[in-house]
């Protein structure tokens, strides 16, 4: 597999090795030792699958007490996937990284714990799979508003379909005001 570092250390793009022929293809979507060697040492405890229609934007979600790292990929369709650093004390606080993930390119995106995460669907629909390093806790679910001008994400979905909850998410400025509750930045992966 090919591991690509992004502008924020710890956020990775993974291009798996694909074996294709006239019958179809095979790829290894996860191998604990190989991913550990690439810098993803966390243990994954939960797998999720969502399906969304074109123009849907989900996120930007995070948990404070139990931050989740996520290894994400698309098995049908295409999304623009985004990670925003919300770690207290991080030199990259408020910065974002985005990547197009599709069934065709088979890329994966690793979003470490301490990041807000979201995606928008650019194809007619998309099936999105993600492995999480901690369990989902509905009482600990929070959101960063998708169009916060202080973050400045260049979304390809200009007027997305949002949940009521996602539309009412917090701003980066309000996150900064509660910084003592945010996950801590450490300079070790």
Your description of this structure?
By secondary structure, this protein is mostly beta strands. Helices cover 8% and strands 40% of the residues. It contains three helices and 13 strands; from the N terminus they run ββββαβββββββββαα. The chain has helices at residues 32-37, 164-167, 172-177; strands at residues 2-5, 12-15, 18-21, 24-27, 46-53, 57-63, 70-76, 78-85, 96-102, 108-111, 115-121, 125-132, 141-143. It has a six-stranded antiparallel β-sheet with strand order 1-2-10-7-12-5, with no helix packed on it. A hairpin with a 2-residue loop joins strand 3 (18-21) and strand 4 (24-27). It is globular and about 55 Å long.
Features:
mainly beta; 189 residues; five-stranded antiparallel β-sheet; single chain
- Report the strand count: 13
Strand content: 35-45%
What Rg, in angstroms, do the CA atoms define?
Answer: 16 Å
Order of helices and strands: EEEEHEEEEEEEEEHH
Query: Given the structure, what is the number of helices?
Result: 3
User: Which regions contain 5 or more consecutive residues with pLDDT less than 50?
Assistant: none
